[in-house]
Structure formats: C-alpha cells, structure tokens
C-alpha cells in the first residue's frame, strides 16, 4: 500500500514492484509535468552489506495516454547497469563517498533513458547517467544531499531526470488497515467479533516511517506529453488531460548457470507489474485476479470494472462499523453501480460535476492516473485534494503529499456519490474516515523542488524497526 506487495507474485520480486505513481504540474516549473515512479518497497535503511538498487534485468517504463484509448502514445524507458570496481571485497564502499565518481564507492549503478513516441523512432535522451549511492551513514555518505543533487541530470529542452534512493513519502497505517480494516481513530466503533479485548481508538501509526524507496523521477515540458504538443490554459479542452501509468517488465526466460555462478535472461520482455491509481490492485482487484491484472494493459480494464462498481470495501464498512454508515448500507443494498468510483478510477471525471474541473479521457475504461495539465499548482494545497477543494490534487494526478488513503476511503464510503446522485446524502462519517496518518507523521520532509521526495534515511541514524 499504496501498491506495496499488492499481488502474490510481485511480492516475491521487489525490484520489479511498482509501489507509487505521482504525476503533477511542477510547482517550481509550472510549464512542466513531474512524473515519479517508485519501486523496491519498504527498504530498511540499514539493509547492508548488499544495499538496495534497481534491477539490471528489469525494464522500467512510464507510459502516457493522451488520446483517451487506454494505450500509450508516449513512453519513457529506463534500463540500469551495475559496475563493481573490486569483486574481492564484501564492502559496498571502502571509505567515505563524497562524489559520484569516488574511488571509495565499489558498486555503482548507471542508466539509460529513452523516449518512444507512437509513430516515431525512439530517442535516447541520456546514456550512462549515474545513480547516487544508498544513504548508508555519516561516515560512508557524510553529505548525502549533495550526492543526490549531483545525480539530477539535465536532458536538454527543460527536461530533468533523477534515479536513485529517496525517503518513502507515502504514509499509511498498514498495521491497522490490514487488521480487518480497523483504522485506529475508529477502533471503538469497530465490531469486536466477540473477542474479550479489542483495540481502543487512538492516533494512527505510520508503518512506512523512516523507510526508503527507489525513485525514477522525470520532469518534462507539458507539450512533451499532451496530444499534438498542446500547452493551452483551457481546463475543458480534451487535450489538457493525460493518463499516466508505470510498469516493470522482465524477459521471458531466465537461466541459472550453476557452474559460472551467474544468471542471464533472454527473449521478449513481458510485463510483471503496473500501477496508476493508488490501491487499485491492492484493494479493488480480488486475490484471484491480482497477478493477472499486473500483466495486462489499461485498455482492457473494463473486465475489472465490476469490482469498481461494487467495491468490497464499501460492502464491508457497514458490517464492520454497525450503525456508522446507514446511507452507504442502503446504497449497497440498492444494487446500484458506484458511478462515482467508475468515473474517478476508470474514465476520469467529466465536466459539470465539479465547478472548474474535469479530467475525463473518454468512454474507454482504464486505470490511469489522470492529470489535467491546464490546472496549475495550488497556492493553498490540501492533502485531501479534490475532497479538500484543491483542484490540483488527487485524483487530478497525484502529488507526493496527497493523502490518497483518506481520499479513497472517503470516496468508497460514499462521500463522492452525491456528485452523480443529488438525492443521496453521504453519512457523516464518510467525510471523516481515514487511517489517522498525515505528512506530520513523516520524519523526513518533502522537498519543494525536483525530485520532491526527501533525503533517504540512513542506516546508522535510523532506529531499527
């Protein structure tokens, strides 16, 4: 969660596990869009001597649909290679790493980034670009922020890229959510299952606090992503909205050579992970479909629409919290499809429902992170995005600080159904339900500039969990 270990097979393959997708108009450069794809979830900062890294055998991709058919029109591919200076030491570094070419750094990673536009030849934007090391501690990485800054590379044409370790910016009370959907602020109202003792209400606990993640961050001009290079200001222009998703792919055959103690891969790449809207595969798609969903492309997502139309969590809330969600219970029993959720997650929100807003991409149902690029960054952002009156926040794209858990829980609880049915009155609890965790529960602050996610926690200074 947001998409950490969301399916049985990908939970065994963390370097290919897409954990979070962010897409937003850059507050520091509002003529650009920032795209962030995170992988390798739940990293312990002290995870040595083999510290975390991208997979050399994984193809990482960021996809953009700009004509509403659920298929990519622009794709950015990232491939990584790892160099080992001295194979005869177990050490990641043999002294302080004070520059990206430090002789003390034994295991370095580089990458190539390629842009592929439909109907054109692929364009290599950068070759052998360096990743920074992992943040190990005050002796090994004494000035980590400078190493990370040095790893931000200019691709020309107002484009920047960064690949490397960052602080986990997604906050969630995993322990409460997966304990039979028991958000701590609402624990006193939860059904007790006849147990002699049960948790009492209290503040949320951020399970991802002090953990790290590996980030691919790209900042490009809006016209690089939109149909026909559109860069207008008309919010209602259909060219303003793009759909974003990420994927990780592996070659079809992987061989293990026991004599040379090596592995190698061959054959065409096959997608093993994808992600757009947070929690979609994790919470909406049922267990038996999760691995299959990870291998599919968004244009075929109509086959999963029934799980959005009648989400399991919406059925569970009135059962687990008796008397708290009577209007939601009545809506569930009516058998009506959740048209609000179908719009938010699969088509985008059409104009006319929210004043001054739309991110509709058409009738094709596809799980995409939809961003209206004509909506500029908010002067007073709300972590609750659209539900907080902030048109620049989730589900209009996603910023690093958006409280997607609270937003989606509230939407599922019925807070957004009145948009499509004016006769419906959301339960009072629908506007309040969340896991009780906010950005204040992060030890590492976000940055106000690219790549926005904070400096990763180091293994020496971070208490072990």
TrEMBL record:
It comes from the Bacteria. InterPro entries: DUF4331 (IPR025566). Pfam families: DUF4331. This is DUF4331 domain-containing protein.
């Amino acid at each position: 969660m947001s998409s950490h270990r969301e399916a049985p097979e990908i939970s065994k393959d963390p370097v290919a596990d897409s954990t979070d997708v962010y897409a937003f108009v850059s507050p520091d450069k509002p003529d650009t869009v920032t795209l962030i794809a995170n992988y390798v979830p739940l990293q312990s900062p002290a995870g040595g001597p083999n510290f975390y890294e991208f997979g050399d055998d994984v193809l990482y991709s960021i996809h953009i649909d700009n004509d509403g058919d659920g298929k990519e029109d622009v794709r950015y591919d990232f491939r990584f290679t790892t160099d080992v200076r001295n194979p005869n030491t177990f050490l990641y570094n043999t002294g302080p790493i004070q520059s990206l070419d430090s002789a003390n750094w034994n295991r370095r990673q580089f990458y190539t980034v390629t842009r592929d536009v439909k109907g054109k030849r692929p364009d290599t934007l950068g070759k052998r670009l360096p990743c920074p090391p992992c943040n190990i501690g005050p002796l090994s990485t004494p000035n980590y922020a400078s190493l990370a800054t040095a790893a931000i590379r200019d691709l020309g044409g107002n484009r920047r890229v960064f690949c490397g370790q960052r602080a986990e910016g997604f906050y969630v009370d995993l322990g409460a959510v997966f304990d039979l959907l028991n958000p701590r602020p609402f624990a006193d109202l939860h059904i007790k299952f006849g147990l002699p003792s049960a948790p009492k209400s209290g503040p949320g606990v951020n399970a991802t606090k002090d953990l790290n993640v590996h980030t691919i961050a790209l900042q490009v001009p809006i016209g690089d992503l939109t149909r026909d290079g559109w860069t207008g200001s008309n919010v209602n222009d259909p060219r303003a909205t793009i759909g974003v998703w990420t994927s990780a792919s592996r070659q079809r055959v992987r061989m293990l050579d026991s004599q040379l103690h090596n592995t190698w891969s061959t054959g065409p790449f096959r997608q093993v992970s994808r992600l757009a809207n947070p929690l979609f595969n994790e919470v909406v798609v049922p267990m038996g479909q999760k691995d299959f969903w990870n291998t599919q492309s968004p244009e075929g997502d109509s086959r999963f629409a029934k799980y959005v139309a009648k989400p399991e969590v919406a059925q569970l809330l009135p059962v687990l919290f008796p008397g708290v969600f009577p209007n939601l219970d009545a809506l569930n029993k009516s058998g009506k499809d959740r048209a609000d959720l179908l719009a938010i997650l699969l088509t985008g929100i059409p104009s006319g429902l929210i004043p001054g807003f739309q991110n509709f991409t058409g009738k094709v149902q596809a799980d995409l992170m939809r961003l209206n690029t004509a909506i500029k960054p908010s002067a007073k952002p709300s972590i609750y995005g659209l539900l907080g009156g902030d048109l620049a926040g989730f589900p209009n794209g996603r910023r690093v600080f958006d409280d997607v858990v609270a937003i989606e829980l509230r939407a599922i609880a019925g807070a957004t159904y009145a948009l499509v049915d004016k006769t419906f009155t959301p339960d009072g609890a629908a506007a309040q339900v969340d896991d009780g965790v906010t950005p204040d529960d992060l030890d590492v602050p976000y940055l106000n500039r690219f790549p926005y996610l904070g400096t990763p926690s180091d293994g020496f200074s971070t208490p072990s969990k």
